[in-house]
Request: fold
Amino acid sequence: MDHSKVERVLIYRLGSLGDTVVALPALHLIERSFPAARRVLLTNMRHHISAPAAFSVLEGSGLVHDFIDYPYATRKLQELARVWWKIVRLRPQVVIYLMGKRGEHSLERDKWFFRLSGTRRVIGLPVADLAEPLFDSGTQMWEHEAARLLRCLRTLGEVDIDDPASWDLRLTPAEDQRARDMLAHFGGRPLIACGPGTKMPAKDWGADNWRGLLTALNREMPDHGLVLVGAKQDVEVADYASAEWHGPVANLCGVLSPRETAAVLKNVELFVGPDSGPMHLAAAYGIPCAIAYASRSARGHWFPIGRGHEVVYHTLECSLCNLEVCIEKKKRCLTSISVEEMMSAAMSAWKHGQAKLAGFR
Reply:
């Protein structure tokens, strides 16, 4: 098939903020492969009150042109029929399948769903070794999800995952101006960002820990201002965590869109937080991150992309549980992370970032 003649492409990717950000290199590859096509994303518009949908991350980027809502985890025939009819009317010539591991039955069902919608070519099905991240015995790290997605699309070409252009959200001048307006009262001070909230209880390090870390960082870096980012539901935990910060603070939780949050994070020297959407936004723009990471998932697979980050990850006998709520072990992989460990990680990440900046001067 001559890709330049493809007029309509359907991209299947469910998830929210972090899931969308890690797919950016794949989306750039799809745009490059099908430059003249109308690219439509089949995705869930929302499945959690504090989880921004993909359209709020990509809208205005040009990477996709439109969205079809796939109701999260639906099995209702009426809703599936509605989705099917929208795909039929779109008449995509190609479906790009950007999903994670699926059972054989689910893959067959999905293939038939798209075929019955009139599409014969599906690219990116996670079969065989494409379904799982690869393990690097040298680093003891698992392949990043962004790299696994690119392996699924290897028939379309290669992408340099370390190239900042592969992570570009193409923020608009208005979004960058909004960030400048939000940060104007800092008067040009260097900034630290914290996103203490998370929609998943198993990833929550705890408000007292974040307060202890920010208080310690403030003592070490008294000339820095503090920016807090997250969803509207994170306002209270952000206020509590920053209560002992002596200096300018801006709690922007619930104030900014995901893209405006990215524009703000471009201006900070360090991001601290849990495994979260804001973490992925900061890393996408090369901001060093210090992360209190629950070992519910494999080391490296969903880490912040790039070099210079410090991820505190405790391997326990119950690691890789993939739990969203941890009751029996009481989040021991996270509660065993001390404020002192995170402080050391934060200073190390910040120093790496400063050394990188010095190299560019």
